[in-house]
Amino acid sequence: MHTIVAIKQVPDTTHVRIDPETGTLIREGVPAVINPYDRHALEMAIRLKERFGGTVTVLTMGPPKAAEALVECVEQGADRAILLSDRKFGGADTLATAYVIAHAIAAIQVEDPADLLLFGKQAIDGDTAQVGPGVATRLAVPLITYAMRIESLDPATRTAIIHRRIEQGIEVLETTLPALLTVEKEIATIARAPLPNLVRAAHYRPETWDATTPVPFDPARIGIKGSATIVSKAFTPPRKEPGERMSVAESGLTRVVGQALQRLVTAGVLSSAPATAPRDESNA
Amino acid sequence: MTPNHRCDAIVVGAGPAGVAAAITMAKGGLKVCLIERGRLPGAKNLFGGVLYPHALAEVIPDYAERHPPFERPVTEQGYWLLSPDSVVRIMHKSVHYKTAPTGAYTALRARFDAWFAEQAVQAGVLLITKTTVTEVVRDARGRALGVATDRPEGLVQAPILVIAEGVNNLLTQSLGLAKGDLPPRYVALSVKEVLALPAAEIEARFGLAGADEGVAIDIFGDATLGLPGTAFIYTDAKAISIGVGLLLEELIVHNLKPYEILARFKAHPVVRPYLAGATVLEYGAHLIPEQGYDRMPDLVGDGVLIAGDAAAMVDAVHREGSNLAMTAGRMAGETALEAHRRGDFSAAFLRAYRTKLEESFVLKDLKQYRRMTDFLDSTPHVIGTYVDFMNEAALRYFTAQGMPKREMEGEILGLLRGRRSFFGIAHDMMKLLRGLRG
Ligand SMILES: Cc1cc2nc3c(=O)[nH]c(=O)nc-3n(C[C@H](O)[C@H](O)[C@H](O)COP(=O)(O)OP(=O)(O)OC[C@H]3O[C@@H](n4cnc5c(N)ncnc54)[C@H](O)[C@@H]3O)c2cc1C
Ligand SMILES: Cc1cc2nc3c(=O)[nH]c(=O)nc-3n(C[C@H](O)[C@H](O)[C@H](O)COP(=O)(O)OP(=O)(O)OC[C@H]3O[C@@H](n4cnc5c(N)ncnc54)[C@H](O)[C@@H]3O)c2cc1C
């Protein structure tokens, strides 16, 4: 059983700021963490490895610093980690990101075909939830988004039954493998990594792939050149003024209800104020 | 014990003591496993802080080329004696601090500890973070075999263990080397804030020529409501470190909240202008062990050495701790190397560690100030009394009122006598002298 997990290092959201001039996120100096959904995806992969044997490969596209996130994945139990890092990848939107991740996964699979590809349901900084589907499309594998449970998985018959969250409830799907899942946090709970993993990770250096080796990416389809998104403006919406407050304790219930109804009439929500009922204010 | 990992030496805690021990042993050829509970070394640590590189140089001789994240060299230092509305300053600034190898630097632990631990990793130390040592595993005769951690498959084995766990020395206690928790009269609680301010603004406010100058001020008197304790203001590169510390017992007896004392100190008319417009970057609290020489834990057990705050190696008089910790860590490391050469990890052999410390400034200084905590404990009024007197005397002294100077001097003497009897003063001075001379 070989599972490939795509992870993204994201700024710790409690620290994010927006550059007032360019309108883009300032990532400099902000502590980074593994995208929370991706941690659960990785954990699912590790559970499958524990059950069926095999290996877990993690990959990420990001700056050299993202190697930290990969080492953390090895601590958690990943066997192999690949960092796609090159200035030429910089400025990628979901289109360019999906292109790179898809081709990198294809390259990994030449030697070691995967049974499952796991992604987070979305990245907490970009929030588009597009990269996973983009990769599935490019690799022509079945896609199941918002996966919350793997009910069963059989590496022999190469099938799996997956529960996915939809607005009205839960959808249960059967799929052939390999498939690509973008996952919710419920997919697996995060276990405390055993010490020998930390020892291994302390010496582990992720492989680094750049824009030309071992995969010669098309320079026109990566980084800012390969991106279709133009950030024309980003701004912090003005804070909404709090609404008017009326105090029942101070004015009494009848007065407050009366005033509130009057406001609704003034605003044109009601045509006329209905007669207010309660007389005994002490019961309010 | 069936270990999940084996090495030649285990160090618990990646503070100054633990990292110094780990580097010393790794350079001596041992396979060292350094275990730290924080996400990164330094993540959980806090000090004033002024670092003294003499101790660092003995662990990493070429430390300067390795770009340690110091904030500023300390080129001016001294004391403020603060009354509720005034201050007497005793400050020393000298060009010698710049020409001679500088004696001190301000630093922030989150950055410094991470750098220091990175030097250990480069020396070949296996650094395991996010992992707490929960227990020292011992054989039937009480000899340490290794440690258990809070991780699955978390047993680590080694013939020697350096415990550098800091002031909250649970493992040291579990081995019977420290006798229970510190009583509140022997432990100080400090709270600190790091306030961001542009470098140029810091330099203008503190009269510094540039990034190569810095101030370290220790403050007595009103900063701690006249109670035994100190406050401090240190300049960092782009921030001001400010804090107050009091003996835990004083806080309990007077029902004081440390953060309120710090807020009060920051609002003091003398202090406030230095901080105007600064924003809080971080804040925290930490304990300082001040039980002194006579109540230190035992420093060795079979297969175990204790270093740094875990063994109360703090010289509160000179706000030194990190340098004692590093020196003790280094000496623990050297002793562990000798033990490996001899194949003897018994407490009897490891006593050589204590001897080394006795011959160094670490235990010499602690011995000299052995009565200091008792002095403050038995004369808690002393700081408030004399600091306020100094301020009132200074006001008289510097004010011309058409009064003959003889009369003014008499008035100043009267101010002192009004606060404390002649015998009281003589008594205080004798006690202070004894506190300082050991
Ligand atoms: C309007 C807009 C503004 C943008 N602004 C910025 C900006 O200011 N700064 C900036 O750097 N980028 C910006 N981007 C680019 C974009 O946010 C991401 O860098 C990238 O395209 C991934 O998209 P996402 O974060 O929405 O990921 P999602 O599609 O939400 O991520 C889903 C999953 O895909 C996988 N994944 C995502 N990214 C990677 C990766 N790099 N490596 C491996 N796996 C991955 C993870 O498993 C993740 O859980 C912007 C994009 C848009 C549309
Ligand atoms: C407010 C304040 C101001 C100070 N000012 C100065 C100053 O200006 N100059 C100076 O030299 N000294 C100063 N000190 C003292 C100095 O900080 C300490 O003496 C020094 O840090 C001691 O180093 P250490 O390595 O013994 O302990 P610590 O620095 O406390 O390190 C102990 C480490 O062990 C880890 N740990 C603890 N238990 C476990 C466990 N069970 N498993 C794994 N890891 C564990 C902790 O997370 C920590 O990283 C100050 C202290 C305080 C509180």
Automatic annotation (TrEMBL), chain A:
Residues 22-218 form the Electron transfer flavoprotein alpha/beta-subunit N-terminal domain. GO terms for molecular function: electron transfer activity. InterPro entries: ETF_a/b_N, ETF_b, ETF_beta_N, Rossmann-like_a/b/a_fold. Pfam families: ETF (PF01012). Gene3D superfamilies: HUPs. This is Electron transfer flavoprotein subunit beta. Keywords: Electron transport, Transport. It comes from the Bacteria. The keyword Lyase does not apply.
UniProtKB/TrEMBL annotation, chain B:
Its cofactor is FAD. One of its GO terms (molecular function) is FAD binding. Residues 372-436 form the FixC-like C-terminal domain. The keyword Coiled coil does not apply. It comes from the Bacteria. SUPFAM superfamilies: FAD-linked reductases, C-terminal domain, FAD/NAD(P)-binding domain. Pfam families: ETF-QO_FixC_C, FAD_oxidored. Keywords: FAD, Flavoprotein, Oxidoreductase. InterPro entries: FAD/NAD-bd_sf (IPR036188), FixC-like (IPR039651), FixC-like_C (IPR059103). PANTHER family: ELECTRON TRANSFER FLAVOPROTEIN-QUINONE OXIDOREDUCTASE YDIS-RELATED (PTHR43624). Belongs to the ETF-QO/FixC family. Part of an electron transfer system. This is Protein FixC. It comes from Thiocapsa imhoffii.
